[in-house]
Amino acid sequence: MLAKLAVRNLLQHRSKSLIVGALMALGVALLVVGNSIMVSLDNKMEASFTHEYSGDLFIYPDKKAIELQTKKPSINRKKQTADANRSGPQGAESNADEQDNTNIFRSFGSGKKTVLPDYTINRDDLLALPYIDQISPQTVGMGRIENGLGAQTVSLFWGVDPDAWQQLGFSQYLTWHTGNFWANDEQGIAINRQVADAYQQSSGQTLKVGDEIQVSVSGDAGTKIRSLVVSGIFSFHSNAAPQLNIMSLVNLSSSQALFSLTTDTDSASQLTAADEALITNVSDDSLFANQLFVASTDLVIDANQLEAELSSSLARHRSQTQNAPHEFHFIAVQLSKGEDTLQAQTLLQTWIQENGLLWKVGDWQQAAGFVAAMASSIGWILNGAMVLIGVIAIIIIMNTLVISVTERLTEIGTMRAIGAQKSLVRRLIILETLVLSVSASVVGVIIGALTIGLLHWLGLNPPGDFFALLLGGQALHPTLAIQETFNAVLMMVLAALIASYYPLTIALKVNPVVAMEG
C-alpha cells in the first residue's frame, strides 16, 4: 500500500521526479565510466609490469638492515633484520623504501648496501616455497655504448639470464627486429631499438648483429669497460615506463663486472709445491733485471713449463670461485598460479625475517616507481572529482526535494489530519527517495555499461605523450568494473537519502490545521 502511494506521488510530480532522476542517473553513469576506466588502466599497467618486466613481486636489499649490520657486526642478523623492520612508519625514521625510492629501473650502485647478500646460498630454499613459481636475479644500471671511433649513446642496462627470462615469460613480450638473445655460454648484449637509432645518429653507422661494441659504466669503483657482441636489436611490446625506451639487455656476468658487483670466496688460494718452487727460483733481482726480457744465459725459464703451471693454477683456483655468492641488485619473482599477491608478499617477507636475510619485498607498483605513483595520483584526482560531483548532486537533489515537499504541504497536512503519524510520513518520503534513486541508478548503470562497451570496442587511444605513458603507448580497451558499479549505485542511494533528510524535517514540522487552511 505504501509502495503504491510512493509510486503514485512520484508519477503525480513527474517533472520534478524526472529532473531528480536524471541527475542521479547521470551521476551513476559518470561513476561507472570513470571508475571502470581507472580500474582497467590499473589492470593494464599491472599486467604490463608483472607479465613483461617485474614479475608479481621483487626482492631487493634491505638497506637499513645492512647499515645496522655494518655498524653493529656483532649483533645477530635476525635481530638486526627485526630491528630494521620495527623502525618503519611507526618509528622515528621513515621507511627505507621511501628513503631509497627503490624500483627496478633505478641504478642501485655497487656498494654493499645496494646488493642482495646471500642470494646464491638461499636460492634453492626460495624456489622451494610453495607460492613461488619462478625467479630471475637481475642487475640494473646506466652506461654508454660506443665503438671507439666517436659513435656513442647512453643506455640503461638490465643484466639478465635468458633462460630465466624465458621461464618467467618475459621474452615473449619482446619484439625482435633482428637477432635474438645470446647463447648461455656467451657474453653478449641485446640493444633496444631506440638506443640503436641514437647510436646510428651519432655516427651514421647502423648496428648489426655480430658487431663488437664497448660498454662503459662509471661509478664509485671507477670506469669499467667491456667489449660485447651485439646479439640482437629489440623493442618492448608496451612502454608502460619511459625508461624502457633506453633499456638494453646484457648477460649477467658482464653486467656484474660493469656494475662492480664482486664474486667473493671465503677460501684463500693455496699454492702447490710446484708453484712455490717456480716462484722461489726467480729472485727479485733477476725478476727486474734487464736480462729477464732478453735472451739470457744466467736465467733460463722454460716458457712451456711456465704456461703449464699457470694454467694448472688458474684451473684449480677457478673451481674455488665457481660456486661463490654472486651479487645481484634485485630478484623478479613470479608467483604460482592463483596465489594472492598481497598474501604471498606477507608470507615471503615473514620467511625472509625468519631466516635473518637482509632482504625486502616489493610489489609491481613499487617496481614501477614514479609511473605507478603518477597513475595512482591521477586516480585520486578523479575520485576527488567524483566526490565533488556527488556533493553537487546532493545539493541539487536536496533543493529539488525541498521544492517538491513544499508543494505537497497541503497533501501532507491532510494525511496528518486524518490520522497519519509522523512515522508514516517519514517512511513514505524515504520510500519515494529509494524508489527514485534505485530506478535512476539502474538507468545510470545501463548508460554507463553501454558507454564502456562502446569505448571497449573503439579503444581509448592516447591523445598525447602524457597519456601515451600511462597507457603504455597502446590503446586502452576498458571493461565494466562490477564491484565499482555496485559501489556507484550504493553511493547514489546513500546520497539521495542524505539529500532527503532536510526536506523530511520540513514535512514532519507541518501543522495539519495550518497546512489544510493553506
Task: Provide structural commentary.
The protein has about 525 residues and is of the alpha+beta class. Helices cover about 55% and strands about 15% of the residues. The protein folds into 3 domains: about 1-50 and about 370-515, no CATH class; about 105-265 and about 325-355, no CATH class; about 275-320. The chain contains 21 helices and 10 strands. The protein has a 6-stranded mixed barrel with strand order 2-3-8-5-7-6. Strand 6 (about 210-220) and strand 7 form a beta hairpin. Helix 2 (about 15-50) packs across helix 17 and helix 17 (about 420-460) packs antiparallel against helix 19. The longest helix is centred in the N-terminal third of the chain and has 39 residues, at about 15-50. The radius of gyration is 35 Å and the shape is elongated. Mean pLDDT is about 75; it is low at about 85-100, about 265-270, about 290-295 and about 315-325.
Detail the topology: elements first, then pairings.
Elements: H1 2-12, H2 14-52, E1 57-61, H3 63-71, H4 77-86, H5 96-100, H6 119-127, E2 132-146, E3 152-160, H7 162-168, E4 174-179, E5 188-192, H8 193-203, E6 212-219, E7 222-236, E8 247-251, H9 252-258, H10 273-280, H11 284-288, H12 303-321, E9 330-335, H13 341-354, E10 359-363, H14 364-368, H15 370-407, H16 409-417, H17 422-458, H18 465-470, H19 482-499, H20 501-508, H21 512-517
Helix pairs in contact: 1-17, 2-15, 2-17, 2-19, 3-4, 15-19, 15-20, 17-19
